[in-house]
Write a structure and sequence with these properties.
heterotrimer; A mainly alpha (about 675); B alpha+beta (about 425); C alpha+beta (about 375); A: about 675 residues; mainly alpha; Cytochrome C Oxidase, Chain A; two-stranded antiparallel sheet; 19 helices; about 60% helix; about 0% strand; globular; B: about 425 residues; alpha+beta; Helix Hairpins; Cytochrome Bc1 Complex, Chain D, domain 2; five-stranded mixed β-sheet; 10 helices; about 15% strand; elongated
């Protein structure tokens, strides 16, 4: 194990000098000590800092975004013309399964987790999350899970049952490759990340808010993230149970979904969608939160109807549990269930509509500044509305029986998830990039990025409405000219347009990556408060110091930072500036806390997460490997439990010298 | 502090005007595209168009959804126009930072109640249609439908009022009388499939171990295309269906023919040799009712010993159908196929009941299929992949037939009508 | 870098690796023995890693203080282990295995204790280092063993006493656990000796009860069922005794969307199927497909429904009877159900009706002249 720090060869080992105590107690513990590196790769590998972990979540998610995007492009190339030859049936099935899996579990969820990790403690004026080591463990689990799921590509083919993995098609007979095993086990591992993250952030939000920050003064992003964490807390166990059953069915001969043994395959569908529908809100609410930050900042107005937005978010969180069977309108549930779920689905459209109205009214009467972040936010409002309205058309259950499993549904949820979740994420990138990296993303490239994505997205997914309504089902590796209809604007035409659109979309996203590289190479530092922002995360340096705030601010307003900078003119009711961001920050620094105690890094989250892929591989190939993995995990658990709560001061380098005393800090 | 005072960064301010123009242009383009899309899509006559109902069940759905689409469209336009107006009206022209209002509850509640009311109205109508579409008590004809990777089996249980005195078993095309309330009793032999004839009704999953019902009724005789819509594995894309509606008289003729006794080919013909090949190879899985072995015993197929899901299409009256291999291929040449598909409802029955003759047989696809089925339709027929199924196939394997065997078989299959 | 302790462990690890390889080559491929040896190997790798990491060898050069060496029970336990081991060679394999486990455990404890006593000059610290290394292994092992014993003992009690007494015993015991837990939680000031005393007393009580239960043997109906072979019983005729159906397998209480609901009402058997407005006497069932019938009994006697599966059965056909290992039987049935009850029966017909000598039927034993014909096209 390379995680132990040893003296370099040739240096004197202190223990050998007879004068000094033979071995200091902290030395004896070896690996049970806590790592202390503050720079270099070790400081990332063993970090428990929520900001570093947030960035690692983000980087991982972005990588998987590229992977999932390439899969999508392959799918569209295959479908550009009838009887496509780019992929064969088997590869196509793997491709669409993994595209959805990657985008849902390995891009949008971890990206939201990244933003949440980075900004929730900053927005509530905390120095870290409640359980820093669990936070690190969550990230490594996500990475391990992502690797396991994708490992199948190299070991006989990836999962090929669709991301919904309906039984019995996912059983060992109907999916004989190992792909589904990798999928179930990988997602169980990744699920640990969501679950631990949920508990961590809920405790953080409920317990670690800055003085004066009541729940109704919390930024909307933090609110939405909190709702999402509750959804995760209850949804992830359900999918874990389902995956666990499937693992046992495939690897150990269980019969949970075996009809001949008396099982009912609809059990899987219920389990999957009881998770799957809250999952939709898990994917979209963080983006709602992001643009609820961005729109007020660039409208120079507070969010219109803050309590309505918050409560509609919470309402979505509740009602989201009662609509799962609308994914199963064609499954044969019987008219009573269908009717109930149909009405519940209509009901959930109301709080969603409330949000759209509030965002529009937030901009109403404002002073709109069209930065790239703002453009993505407005893009979300419009595109999500389209997706939401097409959603209403299939809350009408009879109508849904015509539309479900056609491209109309594909169009619907891409408007919701691409036009919604991903546009929100990109808005977050542009808005928070200077906060995370101290440099601003190039706005000109950003504008190109936005417009290419808008055009590409509408060209790709817009025609899918038509394709679906004209009867092209999803998940078909080829479509045939015999069913394409007549005339120039037949299904062939729209398929081709969609494929061209996907290439434009790819260029748009490519521009973002170029923008990242250009920004990283640029020497220009971002100003302290580039957007004239409103919430606490901007009330610190760019990027923030490891301890986030020199002194924890006392909160009096919803938009605390804005109200420290501006005061209302009593006569005109317009706002005038009373302090600059630098002034506000200097004020905080004058009252810096004398003793700031930050958690020490740890080896064990990484070691513990490393054991998991071995267990997964062991379950698939050979049980002894799983036992070895289990031993690694056991070892790590005890290491975790037994390591000291912080590293001894003597283990650290000289204290930092950033102007004020920071006890036991290493930042 | 000018980088974030009322004028913002100069660069941002300068660019935003151009961008708003570009945005508006973009929206115009979008609207235009949408309009073209709608106009264009109306004229395509796609066989699976969900907006062209051809029977009362589909019509019921259509009548329900058209207003919903209209209302959704109007709301979408209102929101887009509102956003566009806000963008144009309130963009930063150097106005002071506005009053920090936190909302107007009365307005909020109004704007919450309006969509709720709209949805309540939609909900009432939805409720009615859901229960109307679930009725089974007015059924006139029952057909059992069984999905299997990757084809559908239709079996007509004994119903004397329709002249069905012994069970009829068919595949590839669902034949039913027009103007009749037909109830499909769907199930599946392996994974979940979904039965969908868009012109006649929405889809309904065929779930193993469960019997689900689906009402079908066609107003006019004709042929209606469909497609399996629940992902069912490798050849999901190739699992198609065609529903054939015949007038009641034509349907009675079809029934009579389906129940007619087996006619062995004449001695000495190529077809007779084909029958021998069939008995030697095909009958392991494919049943032809009435076919006798040389020793006089009935030939009974045992697909359960060779195929995982335990059945293979019954070929007794193969040439009365227009498709084979799970409706992936047509038995008719293109010209003959178009002749049937485009026939008007008056003469459709005659053309369909003529079946397939040698002149119209799509011999190329049929021969390719007999030569090496897994090559033209992806299936789990690779012996290396059969460990999980104890060596049983899923789909038709490559039988390694010689070209002369294929000649004989084609000649024999042509007699099955 | 490799000092005494690590060398010893590395040697042991190497030996374990050699044993594992030799075992895999000469004895069997990855079966139980191989797995066990792999575990031993993995544990040794882990321990060696720990020993190397914690710089054991550094202690060699230190001045030794005799007083740091503490009393140890491990030499004694090791000897006991060896005695067991040798006894096992003579008497029975189980002692041999037990002896090996004891010897290995004792040696591990001994090694770590010996190491810890020379880890540093601070005796208290040395003891805490030992605990830190060994408690992670000791606690779970002891806990698992203890729980295993208690669960096993409890199961003996439950099998010995009658069914109703079993329920009472279960409720009483769980209430006691809840009560004691609540008291302990409400009064954190309770002496830990008292709490552990109660726990130990409870555990001892259960173990004693378990021994007594083992002595008393199985309760009557279980003993009778075992003697009459009820556990394997799959015949569908009249019942043999009052305990007969309690272990019937392959039945599920209820299912939605069955192929047909078979009703026995007033001595008449009829099939109700969606789509058919009249009760039917013929049910058409797809071939090679698991289908579910629901049997409803409106007769005042207890009845079961029997499905005949035909004489022509496929060699590997997945029928419920064959899965049970009774391929001679060609029928399957529901449990006996009382009036008003219903039960599902899942059946697969592999062969068509025309291949059968007799028609396939659904019948109810004791009701003559009534049968539903099953047609498999």
């Amino acid at each position: 194990m390379a995680i132990i720090e040893r003296p370099a060869p040739g240096t004197t080992v202190p223990a050998l000098t007879p004068a000094a105590p033979a071995i200091t107690p902290s030395r004896t513990y070896g690996a049970l000590r806590r790592p202390v590196a503050t720079t270099g790769w070790k400081s990332w590998l063993f970090t428990v800092d929520h900001k570093k972990l947030g960035l690692m979540y983000g980087a991982t998610a972005l990588f998987f975004f590229i992977v999932g995007g390439l899969e999508a492009v392959l799918i569209r190339l295959q479908l550009a013309a009838p009887d496509g030859k780019v992929l064969n049936a088997d590869l196509y099935n793997q491709m669409f399964t993994m595209h959805a899996t990657t985008m849902v579990f390995l891009f949008v969820m971890p990206m939201a987790a990244g933003f949440a990790n980075y900004f929730v403690p900053l927005q509530i004026g905390a120095r870290d999350v409640a359980f820093p080591r669990i936070n690190a463990f969550g990230f490594w689990c996500l990475l391990a899970g992502g690797i396991v799921v994708n490992l199948a590509w190299f070991l006989g083919g990836a999962a090929d049952g669709g991301w919904f993995m309906y039984a019995p098609n996912s059983g060992p007979v109907f999916s004989p490759s190992k792909g589904v095993d990798f999928w179930t086990l990988g997602l169980q591992i990744a699920g640990i990340a969501s679950l631990t993250g949920a508990i961590n952030l809920i405790v953080t939000v409920l317990n670690m808010r800055a003085p004066g920050m009541t729940l109704m003064k919390m930024p909307v992003f933090t609110w939405m993230i909190t709702v999402v964490q509750f959804l995760l807390l209850f949804a992830v166990p359900v999918i874990t149970v389902a995956l666990f059953l499937l693992t046992f069915q495939r690897s150990f001969g269980a019969q949970f979904f075996d009809v001949a043994a008396g099982a009912d395959p609809l059990l899987w569908q219920h389990l999957f969608w009881i998770f799957g529908h809250p999952e939709v809100y898990i994917l979209i609410l963080p983006s709602f939160g992001i643009i609820s930050e961005v729109l007020p900042v660039f409208s120079r107005k507070p969010l219109f109807g803050y309590p309505f937005v918050v409560f509609s978010g919470a309402a979505i969180g509740f009602v989201g549990w009662g609509v799962w069977a609308h994914h199963m309108f064609a499954s044969g549930l019987g008219p009573v269930s269908v009717a109930v779920f149909s009405l519940a689905t209509m009901a959930i459209a109301v709080p969603t509509g409330v949000k759209i109205i509030n965002w529009t009214l937030t901009m109403w009467g404002g002073k709109l500044v069209f930065t790239t972040a703002m453009k993505f936010a407005i893009g979300l409002v419009v595109l999500f509305t389209i997706g939401g309205l097409s959603g209403v058309t299939h809350s009408v259950a009879p109508s849904d029986t015509q539309q479900t499993d056609t491209y109309y549904i594909v169009a619907h949820f891409h408007y919701v998830l691409f036009g919604g979740a991903i546009f929100g994420i990109f808005s977050g990138f542009y808005y928070w990039w200077p906060k995370m990296f101290g440099k601003m993303l190039n706005e000109r490239l950003g504008s190109w990025n936005f417009w290419l994505m808008v055009i590409g997205m509408n060209m790709t997914f817009g025609p899918m409405h038509i394709l679906g309504l004209q009867g092209q089902p999803r998940r078909m590796y080829v479509w045939t000219e015999a069913r394409a209809g007549e005339g120039f604007f037949n299904l062939g035409f729209w398929n081709l347009i969609a494929s061209i659109g996907s290439l434009i979309l790819t260029v748009g996203i490519g521009l973002f990556l170029i923008n990242v590289v250009v920004t990283a190479r640029s020497k220009v530092r971002a100003p302290l408060d580039p957007w004239n922002a409103r919430s606490l995360e901007w009330m610190t340096s760019n990027p923030p110091k490891e301890h986030n705030f020199d002194s924890i601010p006392h909160v009096h307003h919803l938009d605390e930072f804005f109200h420290r900078k501006y005061e209302e003119d009593p006569t005109t009711h317009s706002m005038r500036e009373v302090a600059s961001a630098e002034d506000v920050l200097a004020e905080l620094e004058r009252n810096a806390d004398q003793h700031i105690h930050m958690p020490s890094p740890s080896y064990w989250p990484l070691v513990l997460a490393c054991g998991m892929p071995f267990v997964a591989l062991g379950v698939i190939y050979s049980i002894p490997v799983a036992i070895a993995g289990g031993l690694i995990m056991l070892y790590a658990l005890y290491g975790w439990a037994l390591e000291p709560s912080t590293a001894p001061e003597s283990d650290f380098d000289a204290p930092s010298s950033n102007g004020h005393a920071v006890g036991a800090s290493h930042g | 502090m000018n980088h974030r005072s009322s004028n913002e960064t100069p660069a941002v301010g300068r660019l935003s005007v151009a961008r708003v123009k570009a945005r508006r242009f973009g929206q115009c383009a979008l609207v235009a595209t949408g309009a073209i899309a709608l106009l264009g899509s109306c004229a395509t006559n796609a066989p699976q168009d969900t907006w062209q109902p051809k029977g009362p069940n589909a019509k019921m759905i259509d009548d329900l959804q058209q207003p919903v689409f209209a209302v959704a469209g109007i709301i979408g336009i209102i929101v887009s126009v509102a956003v566009a107006y806000v963008i144009w009206r309130y963009k930063d022209r150097g106005q002071p930072i506005p009053e920090q209002t936190h909302g107007k509850p009365a307005l909020e509640i109004t704007l919450t109640v309006i969509p709720a009311l709209i949805l309540a109205v939609v909900g009432v109508f939805t409720f009615r249609v859901i229960f109307d579409l679930a009725r089974t008590d007015d059924t006139q004809l029952v057909i059992n439908v069984t999905g299997q990777q990757w084809w559908w089996e239709y079996d007509y249980p004994v119903q004397n009022e329709w002249g069905i005195t012994q069970p009829i078993i068919s595949s590839g095309q669902l034949v039913m009388p027009a103007g009749t309330k037909v109830l499909l009793r769907e199930t599946s032999r392996d994974v979940i499939h979904s039965y969908w004839i868009p012109a006649l009704n929405g889809k309904r999953d065929a779930v193993p171990g469960r019997i689900h019902t689906l009402r079908l009724e066609a107003d006019e005789p004709g042929i209606y295309a469909g497609q399996c819509t629940e992902f069912c594995g490798l050849s999901h894309a190739n699992m198609r269906m065609e529903a054939v509606a015949l007038s009641k008289e034509d349907f009675a003729r079809w029934i009579a023919n389906q129940q007619a006794a087996y006619q062995a080919p004449a001695e000495g013909t190529l077809a007779k040799e084909g029958e021998a090949v069939f008995l030697n190879q095909c009958v392991r899985c494919h049943q032809v009712d009435g076919l006798k072995r040389p020793d006089g015993t009935l030939a009974i197929a045992a697909p359960d010993e060779n195929v995982w899901s335990g059945a293979a299409p019954n070929l007794t009256k193969l040439m009365t159908r227009n498709t084979f291999a799970g409706a992936m291929f047509d038995l008719l040449r293109d010209a003959c196929r178009d002749d049937v598909w485009k026939a008007d409802s008056a003469e459709f029955g005659v053309k369909y009941l003529a079946g397939v003759d040698e002149a119209c047989l799509n011999v190329n696809d049929l021969r390719a299929w007999l030569r090496n089925a897994p090559e033209v339709k992806p299936m789990y027929a690779n012996p290396a992949l059969l460990t999980e199924t104890n060596g049983k196939y899923r789909g038709m394997p490559n039988l390694g037939l010689s070209e002369s065997d294929i000649d004989k078989l084609v000649a024999y299959l042509l007699t099955l009508k | 870098m490799f000092k005494v302790g690590s060398k010893l462990f590395l040697g042991l690890t190497g030996f374990a690796a050699l044993t594992l390889v030799a075992y895999l080559i000469f004895v069997e491929r990855l079966a139980l023995g191989g797995v066990a040896l792999s575990v031993v190997f993995a544990v040794l790798v882990g321990l060696s890693a720990v020993i190397i990491m914690i710089n054991d060898g550094d202690s060699e050069v230190q001045p030794r203080d005799v007083s740091l060496v503490r009393a140890s029970m491990w030499p004694l336990v090791t000897v006991v282990g060896f005695v067991l081991l040798i006894l096992g060679l003579v008497v029975a394999q189980v002692y041999f295995i037990f002896g090996i486990v004891v010897v290995l455990a004792a040696l591990t404890e001994w090694l770590v204790q010996a190491w810890s006593e020379s880890a540093s000059d601070d005796a208290a610290h040395n003891e805490s280092a030992r605990r830190r290394l060994l408690h992670p292994i000791e606690f779970p092992v002891i806990a698992t063993l203890g729980l295993g014993v208690i669960i096993f003992a409890f199961s003996r009690i439950m099998l010995a006493i009658s069914k109703s007494a079993g329920a009472v015993a279960f409720i009483v015991l769980s209430s006691l656990v809840l009560l004691v837990g609540a008291i302990v939680a409400l009064r954190p000031a309770l002496k830990s000796a008292l709490v552990s005393g109660i726990c130990v007393a409870g555990a001892v009580g259960i173990v004693v009860g378990g021994i007594a239960g083992q002595g008393a043997g199985l309760r009557t109906e279980l003993a009778e069922a075992a003697a009459e072979g009820h556990f394997l019983h799959r015949e569908c005729g009249e019942e043999k005794s009052k305990y007969f159906d309690k272990k019937a397998m392959k039945t599920i209480s209820l299912r939605t969307n069955p192929v047909a609901i078979v009703e026995l009402r007033g001595g008449v058997l009829s099939a109700i199927m969606t789509g058919f407005n009249e009760p039917q006497k013929i049910v058409s069932v797809p071939r090679g497909n698991p289908v579910t019938f629901i049997f409803r009994n409106f007769d005042d006697a207890e009845r079961r429904m029997v499905a005949s599966l035909g004489t022509a059965m496929a060699a590997g056909a997945e029928t419920s009877t064959e899965k049970e290992g009774h391929s001679d039987s060609n029928e399957t049935c529901t449990q006996l159900i009382p009036q008003g009850a219903e039960q599902a029966l899942t059946v697969t017909y592999a062969k068509p009706s025309i291949a059968q000598e007799d028609p396939l039927t659904l019948t109810v034993p004791g009701v003559t002249g009534q049968a539903i014909e099953v047609v498999v096209p």
